[in-house]
Records
---
Amino acid sequence: MGQEDLAIQDFDQAIRINPVNPEAYNNRGNAYRAKGQQDRAIQDYDEAIRLNPNYAVAYNGRAAAYSDKGQYDRAIKDLDESIRLSPAYAEAYVTRGNAYDQMGQQDRALKDYDAAIRVSPNDADAYYDRGGVYRHLGQYDRAIQDYNQAIRLKPDDADSYDERGNAYDAKGEHDRAIQDFDEAIRLNPHEAATYSNRGKAYFDVGQADRAIQDYDQAISLKPDYATAFYNRGLALQSMSQYDRAIQDYDQAIRLKPDYATAYNNRGVIYLLKRQYERAVQDFNQVIRLTPDDAKTYTGRGICYADMGEYDRAIQDYEAALRLKPDYALALRKLEDSRRAKAAVGSR
């Protein structure tokens, strides 16, 4: 029921009555993990394993807590043991797959999800998590197949509709994406990310007004949601509401100081407003965060050229062309700046 504090009180009492019951420690560990108190959870899993060294479920729980802390090597060690003790324990394969996915080892993650499905063909979580890996790999059709299975097995799971919607949106099937986001919101009307995702789909089909309504709702549910501020800024920018867009990019950057695309878009607006020094400051930040982006050097070069600083503009266009030799805009602007510099010098 999500009432972890009441659960912990009961597990405390159970442990007082029987201090050698490993299940009570394991279950209290689960409650602490649900509360985000991973260190206390690990202490309980340690005790459960001490009391029952063959307790595969406790190894899985401790591994999940280690994964939450980013300690994936320790997690995998525990999961190897959990699977050794219980080779048909599907959840351990899923947890290990999640750890491998976080480590960027998607091939090994997929093998574990496959194994989970082999030993438990009706494990909705395994299909859901495997779908997530396929989606991040750009294999959207395979992702959708897995989300279909997850929804078949667990038809009231809002997350599966949300993620299938993201896969459809990435494929360009925006109407089907919106249908899935609608269903996810019906099942769980309090998830900010789903409103933001639906807003993106509306934006992709040219309905910026409806997109903004969804971003408003996402922000009302989660006031520190940097992505929603960024996306709303993008929609406002597309409607030429530049001052409001800047306010949203400001907020996105305040919440996420390394948000390179927010700096870039804000810089573009400042360029359009001919506030060149502020635009240059933003492009500087983008280059610091993503130094291999030819477009940003070109944007900064345009600022310098409009300010009459042709040498600096030429340097930026040349940098852009080193990164992208066939970048027509940078080449054209480079030629323009060289001619402008020569004209100034001949006067």
---
Amino acid sequence: MGYEKRKSILRGALILLGFLLVAAFVGPQGAEASSEWSERLSSDLKSVFSVIRWKGPGKILTRDMEFGVSPATRILDMKGKRISLRRLPVPCKAEVRYRLSSRTGPHMALEIRVHEIPRSAGLTKGGRLIHRSSTRWSEELPE
């Protein structure tokens, strides 16, 4: 075995030993800090079941709250299929999962899951129920 080969094996063993020592000394504190951080993150996650009354580009309003909607927000229809904000029917009953924000602005919605779409009593010519809900952008803010 050549000198260079032994030297590279020794260097690899020393690097591995260094990683193991760092993990042994930092591991318990790092795991504790990680656990504390994950608890804090999960406590910042909230969920509300409400009627979405208004939508516009990047934002929705429920009865009591305003939420920001980003491209990362998962929006699911009643079958659990992912849809865009543009296809979200309004009004609809939905569960909104969001992260608490320390800012004064709206909370950011992480997930919007549609549970019910209100239907009117009217029928179309084909006999289908007419939805009161629309997938168009809302015209004006509700009062």
---
Amino acid sequence: MRRSTIIIIVLIVVALVVALFVFGRRSPTQLSSNNPGSGLSNDLGKPKLVAGTFQGCPASGDGGDPALNTLKNRIDEGQWQPTTVAAILALDWPKAIEQKPRSRWSKSDAQAIAQHEGTPVQAEGYLVAAKKMSPESCNCHSVDNVDFHIWLVDDANKGREQSIVVEASPRVRSVHPAWTINRFSQLASRRERVRISGWLMMDPEHPDQVGKTRGTIWEIHPIMQVETISGGQWRPLDNGTTGVSSAPAVAQTAPAVTPVDTATAPPVGNPAVQDNQKVQITNVNFDGQKGSAEPDEYVEITNGGEEAVDITDWVLQNASGRDEFKWESYVLQPGATIRVYTNEAHTESGGFSFGSGHAVWPNSGGVAELYDADKELVSRYAYGNQK
């Protein structure tokens, strides 16, 4: 074989090797699609989160899933990696994790989520809507310190069913005075282009809302920076910062961010001051007469409006969130009253029951909360020493 031919063959082989190396590598700023085993380049690394106590509330919250609460409450700022809304929407997840705390995930499922979770991401798009949410365990059920749910899409003509949820936590908002619910709502109504930076997080609690009020249960949560375009450049809504950088190793207790006054006491359980004027919790019969487990306790819910209300996927719970009842499919007719018993079923009032082996409603006082399918507070009823 002639020497020139051998040289050409060698050059071709080298070119193929180089091509495979270059094009076979995943771009470090592109999230994977439909594969829970891949994600951002491992070269980027995922810093350990930093979180601490805020207004007396620890990062783990006061109930629910403490691991999830801690992720929601991180306050560190990272090196944001550009990605797209579409890329996040394309991420898959193991179905077995849905509506389960992290303590009940299998090792393989936890590893699959860990491939993506905790990545510092940055995505551009348009806000569809913003809502001030209700008290949650991650914020120790504070009435004032609550999360903002914000919906981000990559096309101004798309709706929430094609969005990713990005959340502004009270810990981060406390150092961003411009991050008000009115400001976010204005950005949404104007369809002004924004750039959101924050932490990619899996929230397994809302798979039933995919295709309805969200496009995925992957979230950017919490968001750490919000920018709009001004003068051809991205500019933050304000100059606020937590001043906390991501930890390269195990996180230490972070200093508390700027405190704000808060009241954690629930409002009085009086129908005249209920949060919703149609569907309301109208009574809590907290003192059952059938033993210490009090299975005959019940909560009454009334539709005081003139139209039927679909309460499918609505949730009734006590203030701790430890006991909850969810309607799988039900329409509450106008003027109708239903009851949810602690551990009895009465068909004449709907046949609903917590199925609990212990008393749900303390005799000394408590709070019943009713949430809609989007986990927005519909009605709250306080009684006894919680008034």
---
Amino acid sequence: MIWAIAVLITWLGAAGPPIDPVSQAQLLVQSGDYPGALKLLAPLLATDPKNVQGQLTAAAACIAMKNDYCGEEHLKAAKKSASESSEYQQLTCRLNLIRAEDALTQGDQEKSLAYGQKAADAISSALSKTPGQPKLLALRAISLRASGRSHEALKAYETWRVTEPRNPDVYGATTALLVDLKRWNDTAALLASAPTDDESVRLAIDIAVLRNGLGRVPWTSTQPLFDSVRARNADPQVERMLEIYQTVLVSTERPKSLKVLDYLDANPGDARGLGAAFLARYPEEWNARGDIGDDVALPTLVSERPPTYPKLARGARIEGSVILLARIREDGSVGSLHVLKSTSAMFNQSAADSVRSRRYRPATRAGRPIEVPLVIRVDFRLR
């Protein structure tokens, strides 16, 4: 992808005036090379800190990496000249959504709702300047949900859906909110509103709805849609996803977390999102007993090496959490280990290293050591 961007930049330069660094950085952001965009912009912003578009592009790269401190610094630098622009307000919204999610991960519901409200205010301001843009309508719906205004969020999702009736993402996002409100049955009406003139579009919408119900709704409720999707689907990747979900997660009342670990061991990238779906249905407080029954004594922590605070995160004053699923062996050591959720990737390695250092008094059944799964949370807090 980076090679393709470089070729495009070369072609543009040959076709006309040389492309400027900000435009190059914007192309890198669009391609997903956020560190590359920041590296490209660094010399420019060092000599021209009042370059508003450069600061906004840098902020976009930081926010895409979920580095809220970095994003805030660049937004501050652009605020004087750009605070009323739609782009500035959109980035402010996304920044506050990151903070809302982080606060929720830390268990601070009140703080999370406050950031959600700030996000909603910012995107409302952006919409007043450029109304009707699907991206802004999506952010408004997400922000209202983050601020706890669920019924307003449902209406906002409907407005977004009217604007983009063929976008599977809006159906998936609406489903996620309906599931949170314990209104899965309302997805029938949601699907009835979807277009029917293109089978590929309709199948993508059905899959998006199913993804947000699998693992979070009882199997008896999701099975009709599951069977319908499976009967129409011809994509082997989607078929593999459906097979994994049915076998490992949704076909039983109890999560088969050792099988989840087996799957993640073989597919550490977890392109199917099984780990996230597992955690959505069985929150981090869930422990090994869901798999192994009440006759098992769970493992007891004996020793550990505390996690090292990443220098970049400490310097930027960033806090966070990482939730992992680990295999505790019969000898009390930690076997395979996978990140299920993280507020920032910069914490993942340190958290994993700390958990791998742990030693447990092993779980036992009838006095005999056994291997069990365990959900573990590692927090990074500045003192």
